[in-house]
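Note to self: user wants both folds in one dump. Writing first protein now.
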Amino acid sequence: MICAHVVDVGLKKVPGADAVTVSLNPGSATVKLKSGNMVRMPQLWEIIRKNGFTPKTTRIVARGQAQGERFTVGGTNETFVLKADPRNPAALEELKKHDGQTVTLNGTLMPQKDVKKPVPLIVEGVELK
């Protein structure tokens, strides 16, 4: 059975999942994770793939540290190479000003067909908290 329900059930089983909403019409899933979770994006993408769907653009809000051209998510230590958003290149420049500091980053990831290939994090905005 391939439907939004199986994706919903699969995502709700993820340790650290606080709230999950899956909608078939726009083809979207929203997963809110509890603070301190250890979930990495490839885990979520794999659940979507195993249930017959292809993960698409993934919007994230993550707390962590920028170090040069990389961002490390707090808790999981998952590291992404940073890339400027063509619509807002100033966001990456702003992030670079806070090198080594803990920030909240808004961005997007584009999952690759080759799951072993690194996925750049497109920086859309940064907040100091």
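First done. Writing the second protein, which came from a different request thread.
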Amino acid sequence: MFDTASGRLPTIYVTARDRNRLLTLLAARHRFIPDAVRADLRRELARAVVCDDNEIPHDVVTMNARALFRADLGGELQSRTLIYDEDYSSIGGTISVVTAAGAALLGLRAGSRMPYVTRDGERRVLVLVSVAYQPEAEGRGGSHSCRPWPNAHTRGGDIIRLRPRLAPRTSHGQPDNDGPDAA
């Protein structure tokens, strides 16, 4: 949780795939993303614990996850899906990661709080109540091991898969086959 006295930010978690796609998005569309949001996203991605898709905790907001949160302490409960800017939908029910609240939501675990500043300069604290849906959690079980991403001053390698990915099982206990013959 966010400790207002010490100013400590909560630990955040991102998948390697989301991290790479977000860094690419920040580089390619930097002129279209507000400076403050771009700086916040870069800071959060640099300090994040990076996990393999199969190992990210199930209660973390990843890209395309559905989150229940309050945009301010005591605020109205909202349900939104975190999306990339290019996936923006005018239908509603979504929040773009290139907004202040969307950047604050990325990588939070249920029960965490993250401070952010609105476009109008208003300071708020986003409170994540729960994660209603996370794409990476579908069809997966077991432990959730992650490791910190090496920063620019240390030597680091690629994401290491900590355990082999298991094929999803059907109700009959056999591996699910999504090949051309699957129907």
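Dump finished. Worth passing along: The two ends are 46 Å apart (CA to CA).
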